[in-house]
């Protein structure tokens, strides 16, 4: 079964500093990979996704992530943090192949709460 | 265009009661998925429906059931509520049911079981 590990339940950075949120997956077949952001009392918003093609993926709000198959990783980065980036971030994977019961569902990590200090 | 809508926004129930949560997908989307997000955890998959048929089920007890209507809206039903059912219930819609289809999430329904 696939699983997702997000290292660090809380990450704190200063405004203007690099943001690095780590995500590793366990799967024998490279899955589709996603990063979502969740602001307090809200649903999930897609930041970016990797399905096929270029392994460096750019998303909204200046975020990007790189798929590294050899490391089974999909870390999220942003060069310069803004106060508005403070939120919870979830990495998720999805089986790329349809075979009935598990088609379409996302498997999420436990999340990383990002704090941005002024 | 309207996004995914869910109702109600908040709900308080007592143990043993039954609850129905509702979801309207984005217009044109034929797949709806339900997720449970317990405080401090990532969302967990409950059900996926595509073209009114169940296409996937997560590891949840039979107290949880769902259905999708001809207009592609969906209901999630939970019977015999337990304290542990307290969570944010998220609905997501997508054009199709395959792995590459982006899922768009609604704001969720916050269920509190007392």
Tell me what you see in this structure.
The complex is a heterodimer of chains A (about 120) and B (about 110). In chain A, strand 4 and strand 5 (about 45-50) form a beta hairpin. The model of chain A has no long low-confidence stretch (mean pLDDT about 90). Chain A contains no helices and eleven strands. By secondary structure, chain A is an all-beta fold. In chain B, strand 7 and strand 8 (about 75-80) form a beta hairpin. The mean pLDDT of chain B is about 95. The interface of A and B includes residues 45, 95, 103, 104 and 111 of A.
Largest interface: A-B, 31 and 32 residues
Radius of gyration of chain B: 13 Å
Q: Stretches of chain B where pLDDT falls below 50 for ≥5 residues?
A: none
Secondary-structure element pattern of chain A, one letter each: EEEEEEEEEEE
Number of helices of chain A: 0
Overall body shape of chain A: globular
Low-confidence stretches of chain A: none
Helix content of chain A: under 10%
Q: What is the average of the pLDDT values of chain B?
A: 93
Helix/strand/pairing category of chain B = mainly beta
Give the class of chain A from helix and strand content and strand pairing: mainly beta
Termini gap of chain B: 37 Å
What is the quaternary state of this protein? heterodimer
Nearest-angstrom radius of gyration of chain A? 14 Å
Q: Beta-strand percentage of chain A?
A: over 45%
* Most strands sheet of chain B: 7 strands, mixed
Q: Per the principal axes of the C-alpha atoms, what is the gross shape of chain B?
A: globular
| Major sheet summary line of chain A | 6 strands, mixed
Q: What is the overall pLDDT average of chain A? A: 90
Q: Element order, helices and strands of chain B?
A: EEEEEEEEEEE
Percentage beta strand of chain B: over 45%
Blueprint (SSEs and pairs):
The complex is a heterodimer of chains A (118) and B (114).
Chain A (H helix, E strand, L loop, with lengths): L2 E5 L2 E5 L4 E8 L5 E7 L5 E7 L5 E3 L5 E5 L4 E6 L8 E8 L11 E3 L3 E6 L1
Parallel strand pairs in A: 2-11
Antiparallel strand pairs in A: 1-3, 3-8, 4-5, 4-9, 6-7, 7-8, 9-10, 9-11
Chain B lengths: L4 E3 L2 E4 L5 E6 L6 E7 L6 E7 L2 E5 L6 E5 L5 E5 L8 E8 L9 E2 L3 E5 L1
Parallel strand pairs in B: 2-11
Antiparallel strand pairs in B: 1-3, 3-8, 4-5, 4-9, 5-6, 7-8, 9-10, 9-11
